[in-house]
Amino acid sequence: MLGSGLGGRPLLEVPARQGPGALRYWLPISHNQFFQLNRSNRYGNVKPTSQDSLTSYSDNIMLQVTLLLKDFEEKIQKWYIEIAELGRVDNMLTELRERVLKTSQELYRLQMARGTSGNVSARDPESGLIAITPSGIPYEVLTTEDITIVNQHGKVVYGGQIPSSETPMHTAVYRLRPNIHGIVHTHSLYATVFSVLNKELPVVTVPLAMFGPVPVAGFRLPGSQELADEVARCLGSRRKSVLLQNHGALCADDTVEKALNCAIYIEEGSHVAYLALLAGGLNPIPHKYVAMMQDVSGKGRVL
Fold it and tell me: Is there a contact between 234 and 217 (Cβ–Cβ < 8 Å)?
């Protein structure tokens, strides 16, 4: 049966199955399809005049209805897939934002960032989308909804807050290092002290063997592309940590939780190194033993 929908859009009524009480669909069709169907049915000017023409007419109608139904079913299936994908992405982004929030709260609890200083991000390995802390909101009042989603170039794709001013630094590292999926930038006390000294942090503790020695990135304006480029240059293809001169530290790893762990050990090592300097001098672990510990750690053993 042919009919008309909103705005004069032609509609075709077709059964979903045969038999009494069968469900029926009203399918939107184009005006051209309406014209073709109308020409060959009994409401048009061309009427079947014999049994053969009636059969031909019926076959033509059924063929076109079948094609319309097939197209409709394909669209429905596509919509189901798109809806499922949207749900999966939404769940992934929620989990990513929650992990960034939890890491940020722990960073604040450990007093490695105060007020609105420092920032935290995590990247989804599959989509490449990045969840990052917002600009100007204190850690103690952050919520999951405050965590902003950006792409690898820093463009906001989801969220109502302005992303961290250091987003260029985070995205520069992610673009450089495909294996990095979590970054923590701290303003922790002793790491910042060592950055002011503008000295490479040597491996003075066993945990530092996994991350050191830690170089110092030259001072650049915070939030600038110049700082982002300098940090990426210092990290290179293998390092997981770098001090930012007169600024703080940045740690990167394959998860945001591991990046926080790195930041904790960088702060501990900086504290030990500073006290050792006050006591008379540094005595770093010899390079050959650092290499041996790194080799052991690379094989999955915990030191």
Answer: yes
Residue 37 domain-assigned (yes or no): no
Residue 154 lies in a domain: yes
Rounded mean pLDDT of the chain?
82
Kindly report the number of other CB atoms within 10 A of residue 109's CB atom.
11
Structural domain boundaries, residue 274: 90-298
Establish if 47 belongs to a structural domain.
Answer: no
Cβ-proximal residues to 210 (8 Å cutoff; 6+ apart), any chain: 240, 262, 265, 293, 294, 297, 303
Give how many domains the chain has, as a whole number. 1
Specify the pLDDT at position 16: 45
Catalytic residue, candidates 73, 106, 126, 166: 166
* Residue 84 domain flag: no
CATH number where 159 lies: 3.40.225.10
At 16-40, the pLDDT tens digits run 444 454 444 444 545 455 445 454 4
166 is catalytic: yes
pLDDT digits 0-9 by tens, 175-205: 999 999 999 999 999 999 999 999 899 999 9
- Quote the pTM value: 0.70
Q: Give the pLDDT confidence score for residue 80 in this predicted structure.
A: 57
